[in-house]
Amino acid sequence: MEGCDSCFGRRSIWIVCFIEERLGNIGYLRAMDKLEFIEDKSTGIEIVSMEHVKISYPRHTHIDHYVFGIITEGVVSIGIGSEDFECHEGEYFTVAPDIVHSINPVTEYYSMITTCLPVDGDISGELDIIKNEIIGNPELEISIEEMAKKVNISSYHMIRKFASENGLTPHKFQMQCRVRKAQELLREGYKVIDVAHMVGFCDQSHLDRVFKKLVGISPEQYINSAILSKS
Questions:
Q1: What is the pTM of this model?
Q2: pLDDT tens-digit map of 104-132
Q3: Which domains, and CATH codes, for the chain?
């Protein structure tokens, strides 16, 4: 990751302190099934601490974020783009912004700490008009035909080109963006049932299914696991 040091800057002190604290307590935490989602409001850094879990994450992306992950227990299979590799205890992996990736357990349980570092997006694609519209308003219902009309290509080619540029089909990308927005609203204190409608789901059960598939836990569990820091 060329230029990674500049991405960290002074934010690295906060990240290192957090990771050292978690690694120092790993012997105690291994006996627990625990997830924590930590957001530092002043920097935009997001950290996920997962202890003794068996969660699988399907193909997804992190928009305008670098991901740095450390495996602290067990073994996971990491799929980045078209490549798959195993990451063992004590090893780390990185994922560049907007690169599709997946995580699946190899051992029965694993523990992992991931850090998402925000960066300025500087990669553009021919279908950015559609991508940015979905990111800005994921709750809107936009048909494939409407998307294709905006860029003057057929629906078939629009889907293929969008997936080529972003790693996901327009529908999967929109579901991901809806869940990201739901996480923000839940952290702000909105009720789950209200968030479901605010991000475009027909009911709470639909949000629950998609949210758990992408985040690994239910919206209610996420509320109890989210920690906000203004440091």
A1: 0.81
A2: 999 999 999 999 999 876 667 789 999 99
A3: 4-118 (2.60.120.10), 128-224 (1.10.10.60)
DSSP result, the chain: -TTHHHHHTTHHHHHHHHHHHHHHTHHHHTTS-EEEEEEETTTTEEEEEEEEE---EEEE--TTEEEEEEEEESEEEEEETTEEEEEETT-EEEE-TT--EEEEESSS-EEEEEEEEE-------TTHHHHHHHHH-TTS---HHHHHHHHTS-HHHHHHHHHHHHSS-HHHHHHHHHHHHHHHHHHTT--HHHHHHHTT-SSHHHHHHHHHHHHSS-HHHHHHHEEEE--
